[in-house]
Amino acid sequence: MLARPARDADAVAVAEVFVASFGGLDFLPRIHTDKENRCWARDVMVPGHEVWVADIDGEVLGFAALHEDLLGHLYVHPRAQSRGVGTMLLDVVKRERPNGFHLWTFQRNEGARRFYERHGCTLVELTDGSGNEEREPDALYAWAP
Question: How far apart are CA 75 and CA 77, in angstroms?
Answer without folding.
Answer: 7
